[in-house]
Structures are given as structure tokens and as C-alpha cells.
Amino acid sequence: MQTTLIVGQIINGLLVGAIYLLIALGLSLIFSLGGIVNLAHGAFYAIGAYLAVVLTPRIGFGGSLVASPVLVGLLGLVIERLLFRRFYRSDPILSLLLTFGLAMVGEQTLRIIFGAAPLPYAIPEGLKGQFFIGDFILSRYRIAILVLVTLLVAATWLLLHRTAFGRVVRAGVQNPDMVGALGISLEPYMAAIATLGVGLAGIAGVLLAPITGVHPAMGAEILTGAFVVVVIGGLGSFWGVVIAALIVGVVRGLVVHVFPPAAEPAIYALMALILLFRPRGLLGERIQRFE
Amino acid sequence: MIRSEKMTRRRVIQGGAGLAAAGLMGFPAILKAQDVLKFGHLTPLTGFLGPLGEFAQMGVKLALEEVNGAGGVMGRKIELVMEDSVNPQTASQKAERFVERDKVACIIGEISSASGLAIAQVVDRAKVLYINTGCNSDALRGSDCKKFMFHVEAQNSMYVKAIGRGLLADNMVKGKRWYSLTADYAFGHDLLKVAKRFMEANGGQFAADELVATNATDFSAYLLKIRDTNPDLVVSNLAGNQITNFVKQYTELGLKFPVIGFAYDTAVAWGAGKGNFLGTWPLLWHHLLDTPGSKAFVDTFRKKYNKPPENQAWGDYQTLKIMARAMNEAKSIDPVKIVEFFESGAKFDIGKAREGYFRKADHQMMQEMYTITALPVAEIKNDYDIFKAGAAVPGPSENLEVIAATPEENTCKLS
Questions:
Q1: Does domain B157-288+369-400 fall into CATH 3.40.50.2300?
Q2: Which ipTM value was assigned to this complex?
Q3: How far off is chain A from B253, nearest CA to CA, in Å?
Q4: Global confidence as pTM
Q5: CB contact under 8 A, B221 and A137
Q6: Which residue in B has a C-alpha nearest to residue A224's C-alpha?
Q7: Does the domain at residues B35-155+290-367 carry the CATH identifier 3.40.50.2300?
Q8: Interface test with B, best of A7, A23, A108, A137 (most B CBs within 10 A)
Q9: If you measure CA to CA, which chain A residue comes closest to B272?
Q10: In this structure, how many other beta carbons lie within 10 angstroms of the beta carbon of residue A52?
Q11: What digits encode the pLDDT tens for the residues B36-84?
């Protein structure tokens, strides 16, 4: 029974990791290309969830799963064009202050419009229920999340590694000056990546709204975990983030199993440990700008 | 240069207009300030208790309007100074500022037991009156009790014994195995202690009791353990948003063990929503309570805020009214006089079937409590009336003190 439960916790941890991944991926993309530590990422996630609450009665869960991330992505585009782009080449501390401020503006705006109390939101009827495989229990809804996250991760990978767009982006991550010298302006690429990254946060917001409380501070709640994933995975590394998210999910699940009070601190201890041996993270590449 | 001169001239005119406006509006305010009485209000607006703090502010503002509308305190209008208490350290600093800078006549509010203790230490030094409206820890009425601190919020023991009666009646304690999840901070630890005492005294045992960080949002790993442990009862000693996340994910995984909580706020049930909310929970007051005082409060609150009040709104609303009445009847704002008035056993209409009073020994308000049980989805008519309420505890013929901690269970030495 004990082994079954541990295996159950590992499987569940992978599902939780998929959720971390969705948030961390956008964070990592924006950081890798623009060097912006987007502390407002959680706010975009929260806005995604609130849009789902508002839109679902009108266009259903499926509709809001598309519309909400698109709207959040467009908001990201506007903010990138107006604000982020002024900070790509400046001291990272400035963009840190900017996004910290944006995060607060986002959270307080949600509080002013919707109030501080959590808003009700349920799993759509078709996705309620559980799967039982032997002794294991799996939430049908989380399986749906896993499938969707897998598709999104695959699509993002294809975009970055199999298209002309992706080649420029990856070159931009490594050496933006050389990309410029070749006569390619990185600006539109940066705008596109910011839209994509922020849009991913919006999707995460919609997907998590049915299983966590929808309240203004929900973004701040998940942001630190997502940062831990990015740091563990390593900057500029696509697969690093994927692996780190799954590891963090599984480690947290196992610590809950063994010693619950340490569950939240455990992921920070994990990060410290990994940085001790691999200062650039698990699969972090050597990026000249950040050295 | 010319341009900047123009700007300067324009600025001067604007500034002048501003000054004039400030003069028109500001002077009467300054004159009025002399005969207003300041009350300090602290409550967390951010973090996992933030949703409750917002209701606290709504409640206290409504009471302020009513009290000032009825003449205030001895002819003086009350002015509320409201702040976000954030965490124990900030709560302490802000309480200190209320005392030093604003010279408040009293402080009311707070929800976090850790912050409540910080405020208590400030008022104890400064000898300023404080009524706690949301901190449940028994310790605040026991080892940490203070002469100038009173409690409209019920203590953990009252919550545990209020719902505990139902558990005993349903045979859910003797020989039963409980699985409890506890919020990992002052309130949770205190509640766990009280819950454990009740359970052991009545022949129950823990299948497991586990601490959960207040910032934890994913409960799935805990839920798998619960399922594996196969307990007779799942017990929540969680707080704030934790409860919303917990019940949502409990429903998600479709677990069938009965769920109860030893602490609860209606906002978290509304936040989980119909179909997600489940279990049986104790509380101090609920918006379906059928008494004239309660209905009048719900009606006015709904008119002002377009939604029904929850228990935290009730607590801060009643507390400001209690404080104003005490000052009016004692004909004094001297904290020592007010303490005497409260300790005299004065009864207060708090919108419940029976009046409440402060117990002299630990300054806890003795009052009726309730339990509520989530309704099945088919029986729910709107987003707010998602539970049915049980009768008041203690019953009409019982002493109100039977659900409170005994002096042996929780010893308070008021100096």
C-alpha cells in the first residue's frame, strides 16, 4: 500500500508539475529573450482566471479557454510595446521594479473591480469526475490539463525549433547584437514572445480557476513557485524548465507524503541544492549577457 | 526660458486655485476635528485572510454610519482610521501609530491571531481599549489575555464545542479516527490543541494530523494521503483561502469521507461556490439567521453593498456598536471605566435570539453560535444561500458559558 501511495504521489506530482510548467514557461521565454524578470506574470495569470469567471457564463468554458488567453496576451503586447521594450537593454533592477509595480497595479485593480473575496468557479460538467486505475485515483480534469499542457509545450517547442521565427528568437537569446548586425530587428520578435509568454499565463489562469480560489492575490501565490522552476531549469533552456517543473511537482508531493510542514520550504531547499552544484541551473546555457 | 516662465505662471494659478479649494474644504474639517472621536480599525486586507478583512471594513463602515446618524458618542461624531494590518509586525507598528499619532479612543478589528497578539501587546502598554473581532486563538483569552482586550469573536474552544455537540450526537467521536489538516500558524496550532483535547476527552483518535503552510494552494498530495488513510472523519483546522482551495480540490477528487471544520468563514464557502462547497462548519453568525436584528442588518448591508454580509462583517459591525454603546452608557471614554462597564456583565443586543455579554474572567463575549451544512446542488437557489443552518448552540435554556473554555482548560490572569 505504501509503495502504491508513493507511486500515486509521484504521478500526482507530475500533474502538479504540469501546472507549474505552464506558468514557468512564459516566464522563462520573456526572461531569456528580453532579460526581463517579469514579476507581473502572476498578475497576468490572475487576470486570465478572472476573465474566465466573467466570460464563462457568456461563451462557456471552452470559449473562455480561447478568449481569455488571447485578451491577456493582447494586454501583454500593449504592456510590452509601452513599457517592457524600454527596459531590454537597461539594468535588470529597473525592469524588476517596473514589473513589481505592475504586479501590484494588477492585483489592486482586480481587488477594486471584483473585491477581495474569492469568486466561485467550478470544473465544467464534462470534465468532472475521476479515473481509477487499480489503486490509483486521477482527477479527470487534471488529466485534461496535462493533455493541454503537453500540446502547448509541444507547439511552443515546434515554434522555437522548427520555424524561421524560432531560429531568430533563439539567436536573439544567445547574441542579440549579432542578430542586429545581420540586419534583423529583434523588436517584433520580442513583442511576439512577450505576447506568447503572457498568453500562456492567461491559459494557466483559466485552467486553474476551477481548482483553486479565484482571488486578487492568486498570482502572487503561484509566482514564487514558478520562479523556482525557472531558476532550477536554467535560463534559456526549454527542456530545463520542463524537467524542473516536473521535479518540483514530484518533490513537493513526496515531501507532503513524508513530512508535510516542510512541503513549501522543500522546493526552495531543492533550488539551493541545485544551484550549489549547477549555478546555471540544470540545463542552463552559458549566455554571455547574463554572465 | 519663455516657455518655462509660462509654465510657472500657469502652475502658480493652478496652485492658487488648489489652495483656495483646500481652504474652502479643509478649514471646516479642521474645526470639526476637535469634536470628533477617533476609533482605530485594523484588519488584514492582503494575504490569505484578505477576503475576510474586506468584509470587516464593510461592516465597520456601516456601523459607523448608523452610530453617527444616531448622534455618535456623547454628542461627538466617531471618525474611523482604517489600516491594512498586513502581518504581526506591521499590525504592531500601526497599532502604535494609532495610539501615538491619532490618539484613538480605542482599536477594533483584526483576524489573524498572530497579529491580534501583537496589537494586544501594544494596547496593554498604552492602556488603550481593544476589541478583537476575528482572532480565534484560545491563548488570547488565556496565557496572553490582557486587561484592555475584549473579544467579540468566539474562541477556538467555543467553535470546537459548538460543532462538537453535533459530532457527539452523530457518534463521530468515540472510537473514530480523524484526519486533520491544520493551518501552520498561531491560530491553527491553537485550534489543533483545542480540537485534540475535545477528541481525546470523548474517546476519538487521530488517524493523522498534518500542518499545511498558509500559502499552499495545492491540496492534491494531502488528499491522496487522506484517501489512503481511510479516516472516519476529515477535519479542517484551515483558515481563509486555504479552505476554499481545500474544498474545491476535495470535490474534484470526489472523496466521500464526511468533512467538518472547526473554524470557518462564509466568504470561503461563497468563494468555493455551489457544487464545490461541502461539509459541516461552525460559525458565529450567518446571513440566514432569522431574528429581527439580524434581518435588519442583512437588509441594510445588501442595500449598501449589493451582497449579503458574512460573519466577519457582522463581527466588526457589532463591535463598533458595542463600543459606542458602552461609552455612551458609561458616559466616559476612559478605558478603565469602559473595562469596568464591560466587566459588570452588561448585556448587548447583537442581533441574535439571546443577548451577549463579556465574561469577566477572560473578557470573552458569551453568545450563541451556529453550525451550517452545505446543501446539495439541487436544493440551492442562488450563489449565497448555499447551506442550511442548525439551531443556536447552546440551546435556549442552557447557560451560554457551557461551550466556552473552562478556567482549567484556558487560564487567564488579568492584571
A1: yes
A2: 0.93
A3: 6
A4: 0.89
A5: no
A6: B215
A7: yes
A8: A137
A9: A120
A10: 27
A11: 999 999 999 988 888 899 999 999 999 999 999 999 999 999 999 999 9
